[in-house]
Automatic annotation (TrEMBL):
It comes from the Eukaryota. PANTHER family: ENDO/EXONUCLEASE/PHOSPHATASE DOMAIN-CONTAINING PROTEIN (PTHR36688), ENDONUCLEASE_EXONUCLEASE_PHOSPHATASE DOMAIN-CONTAINING PROTEIN (PTHR36688:SF2). This is Reverse transcriptase domain.
């Protein structure tokens, strides 16, 4: 994987997560779009096939006024879908990282 990414990279097997921290959502969008372009060039160089349709974006913050804001990110010319509660390594994450959705799903499984 390229080392010149501006975002933090988390990997497990073939799952990769990019994370950017900023007070400005536009700055996050710009950094992520730049890093996805770098990754796309890397994948093409090594003849790897990323799946943009499985790529998702989300934001973690406590600002309730911006709860419905979505990031404008594209990967290989395809708009990246926004997911309010993405699942990463089996854990459902929510905007404020309370894990409420994840705990509710586990409670539902235990009740059955």
């Amino acid at each position: 994987m390229p080392e010149n990414l501006t975002s933090r990279r988390f990997q497990y097997a073939d799952d990769t997560a990019l994370a950017v921290q900023s007070f400005d959502f536009k700055l996050c969008e710009d950094k992520l779009n730049e890093d996805l372009e770098i990754l796309l060039k890397y994948y093409k160089m090594w003849k790897l096939k990323p799946n943009p349709s499985k790529t998702e974006s989300t934001m973690f913050h406590l600002n309730n006024r911006l709860a419905n804001q979505k990031l404008n990110i594209s990967f290989d010319g395809i708009q990246v879908q926004h997911n309010k509660a993405p699942k990463y390594l089996g854990i459902n994450l929510d905007r404020s990282l309370t894990y409420r959705i994840h705990l509710e799903r586990i409670a539902q499984k235990l009740s059955t």
